[in-house]
Design brief:
The chain has helices at about 10-35, 40-45, and strands at about 45, 55, 85-95, 100-105, 110-115, 130-135, 140-150. The chain has about 150 residues and is an alpha+beta fold. A hairpin with a 5-residue loop joins strand 1 and strand 2 (about 55).
Length: about 150
């Protein structure tokens, strides 16, 4: 008994699947042949004194003795930090009166700060120079106590 009659399309699909299976098998064999045993030494990387990653170990004569007490790990104390002035000066870069919000560009740090109409003491407009305080808002810095700079 012979094979049932197949359409050309079925034969084509079967031959493509067979061809794909053979190619996959050949790729698997090629991968096995070129696979080499890797050792731990091939995976080790070293860092030189400049912070660059190299494959060669550092020279033992180049070691520099470091005093562990010289390394600062903690947050600097309050005396070491410079005083931060909460009152800032900036220029209003955008303000939408209908929606009641805008942005102020800090003149010192060039940082953009969000401002809401509820936080203004006087009415402000675009390009006004204002004095304000920065507060941490839910999405970043926010300006409070905003008033025009005299």
């Amino acid at each position: 008994m012979g094979r049932p009659r197949e359409t050309f399309n079925k034969k084509e699909v079967r031959s493509r699947k067979e061809k794909k299976r053979k190619e996959k098998e050949q790729k698997r064999q090629a991968r096995k042949e070129e696979e080499t045993k890797s050792s731990l030494d091939d995976m080790i990387a070293y860092v030189d004194r400049d912070g660059n990653i190299t494959s060669t170990p550092p020279d033992p004569d180049d070691y520099e003795e470091i005093n562990p007490e010289d390394i600062e790990v903690s947050v600097p104390s309050k005396e070491d930090r410079e005083e931060y002035d909460p009152v800032r000066k900036g220029r209003v870069t955008f303000f939408n009166e209908e929606k009641g919000y805008g942005f102020i560009r800090d003149l010192e740090t060039n940082e953009s700060v969000f401002v809401h109409v509820n936080q203004t003491l006087e009415p402000i407009q675009k390009d006004n120079v204002v004095v304000f305080e920065i507060e941490k808002g839910p999405k970043g810095p926010s300006a409070t106590a905003v008033k025009l700079d005299k």
